[in-house]
Amino acid sequence: MKSPDHKPDDTDRRIINALQEGFPICTRPYAEAAAALDLDEYELIERLARLRKAGVITRFGPFFDAAAMGGAFCLCAMEVPSVRFEAVTAQVNARPEVAHNYERAHRLNMWFVLATETPEGIDAAARAIEQASGLSVLRFPKLEEFYIGFRMVA
């Protein structure tokens, strides 16, 4: 449950800005990241949890560039009848290639990301979902990547 009344303070802003630049790979990464921010490890973990719960951040984790590793990913959408939405969601989410799945208030009401080990895997996974659901999967492949940095100011 989101708590929209949480307003990030200066420390939250420092955390958000710093962790976008990377996260340590070591035995105690939270301790190392916290030390760089002059915080206690447990305070950092608690603040990240609070920011996540409040919806200030939507996720905290690595971002892997599938294409750079030889794989592929693709944004997909489906028009799913409301009476079948739960069943189709279960069919889509059962696929190991599905990275995210979101319901939207739109004619195309199901949006998800396919991530596969090879570019050919995208069509194979989409076809499998179409076969299982009997519905079309629209594919929106990435044509160009843009990186937009986000910084919070005090």
How would you characterize this protein structure?
The chain is an alpha+beta fold and 154 residues long. It has 2 domains: 10-54, no CATH class; 67-141, Alpha-Beta Plaits (2-Layer Sandwich). Helices cover 36% and strands 16% of the residues. It is built from 5 helices and 4 strands, in the order αααβαββαβ. A 4-stranded antiparallel beta sheet has the order 2-3-1-4. β2 (98-103) and β3 form a beta hairpin. α2 crosses α3. The longest helix is centred in the first third of the chain and has 14 residues, at 41-54. It is elongated, with a radius of gyration of 19 Å. The chain starts with 9 loop residues before the first helix and ends in a 13-residue tail after the last strand.
Question: In angstroms, what is the radius of gyration?
Answer: 19 Å
**What does the largest sheet look like?**
4 strands, antiparallel
Strand order of the largest sheet: 2-3-1-4
Write the CATH fold name of the largest domain: Alpha-Beta Plaits
| Class from secondary-structure proportions | alpha+beta
Percent in strands: 15-25%
Name of the CATH class of the largest domain:
Alpha Beta
Outline: elongated
